[in-house]
Amino acid sequence: MLSGVSEDVSPAFPEMASRNCRTVYPVDLTGVQAVLLDMDGTLVDSDAAVERAWRTWAGEYGADFESVLAIAHGSPAERTVRHVRPDLSDEQVTTAAARQLALQYEDLSDVTQAPGARELLAELDRLGLPWAVVTSADAKLARLRLAAAGLQVPVLVTGEDVRSGKPDPEGYLLAARTLAAEPSRCLVVEDAEPGVLAGQAAGATVAALKGVPADLAIDDLCQLTRLLERG
Question: What is the pTM of this model?
Fold first, then answer.
């Protein structure tokens, strides 16, 4: 495991944005060497906790919560803070981001595994496919949430392990390298646009939840498990 718990590219298939997320697009998964999973909203169901923390933070820092929420999922806290409060100095941004993370450390009451997570990980083990978690969270938050969800992760890349967070591909490239896999033969699983862009910029095939445009649209992790079984 890495020490951490823990720019712009265009989606490869922009036309998918208007299509129904219940459609699975034909993607060949037979050559996949490794699976790289986002944490929040993908492997771990933490959306409610994330939103509560940002709502509290927005109230404290005089930011519009809806504007914050529109960009917060999948991005490092510091990037979100800089975007919604561009008037803050670097030192103030660091303090504000630390406050937002502190709110998330304290709120684990309903953090759990995402539906289908256990089945997907069992199938990856059965297939002998190595896997990793790549998250924008820092080491402390990632460990807290994974523990709350009852998940043990073989390889973890966090925001502390990279110089640039999602949508930069650095985290996914590091995970692929750690697993001795070719990035182009990795399957990235995401639920937010910054992560999809990061995976595609790394050269991976990207499966996305929640109707986010990607190479492969999936309703849940159980559906991905079935697709891997067929492969």
Answer: 0.82
